[in-house]
Amino acid sequence: MRIALFQPDIAGNVGAVLRLAACLGAGVDLIEPMGFAWNDKARRRSAMDYESHVEVVRHADWEAFAAEVPGRLVLFTTRGEVRLPEARFEADDTLLFGSESAGAPDLVHTRADLTVRIPLRPGLRSLNLAVTAGIALAEALRQTGGWPE
């Protein structure tokens, strides 16, 4: 199971996702460009000491990432066709999340094998990126028996 972030804007969210992935055993793909400098200081501050416990792959752009997706690409989006409670996951899925400011463009939606939305109360727009990734990964691991022992 992998988590992919499409052009993330906020270093703190990336750090929270790295920590989540490290603790639950998922890899992380970062699709550039990112909205912040990804240098040693930024990584240490955002990921704390968890970065060494997670496999992180950086991709120069969308095309480079899309050419390497190992299994299904599952996009989490407010425009998702399937509600999370009805979504079915596979162990080699890559859970993809759009940028905090713009979400995922149409070309990303078109490439996705499955688009999923987390149901929210009426009138509310979206959850924080790291929170969404945590909810999504927890459900995908539950369904596939992928929780760490």
Give the SSE order as H and E letters: EHEHEHEEEHEH
Instruction: Average the pLDDT over all residues and give the rounded result.
Output: 93
CATH class: Alpha Beta
Q: Helix count? A: 5
Strand content: 15-25%
Distance between the termini: 16 Å
Proportion of residues in helical segments: 25-40%
Largest sheet: 7 strands, parallel
Output the CATH topology: Alpha/beta knot
What would you call the shape?
A: globular
Structurally, how many domains make up the residues?
Answer: 1
Which regions contain 5 or more consecutive residues with pLDDT less than 50?
none
Strand arrangement within the widest β-sheet reads: 3-2-1-6-4-7-5
- Beta-strand segment tally: 7
Structural class: alpha/beta
CATH architecture: 3-Layer(aba) Sandwich
Q: At the fourth CATH level, what is the homologous superfamily?
A: SPOUT methyltransferase, trefoil knot domain
Q: Which radius of gyration do the C-alpha atoms yield?
A: 14 Å
What this model shows, in words?
This protein has helices at 11-24, 40-47, 62-66, 106-111, 129-144; strands spanning 2-6, 27-31, 56-59, 73-76, 82-83, 94-97, 114-117. With 149 residues, it is α/β, with parallel strands linked by helices. It is built from five helices and seven strands. The model has no long low-confidence stretch (mean pLDDT 93). It has one domain: Alpha/beta knot (3-Layer(aba) Sandwich), CATH 3.40.1280.10. The longest helix has 16 residues, at 129-144. Strand 1 (2-6), helix 1 and strand 2 (27-31) form a beta-alpha-beta unit. Helices cover 33% and strands 19% of the residues. It starts with a strand and ends in a 5-residue tail after the last helix. Helix 1 packs across helix 2 (40-47) and helix 1 (11-24) packs parallel to helix 5 (129-144). A seven-stranded parallel β-sheet has the order 3-2-1-6-4-7-5.
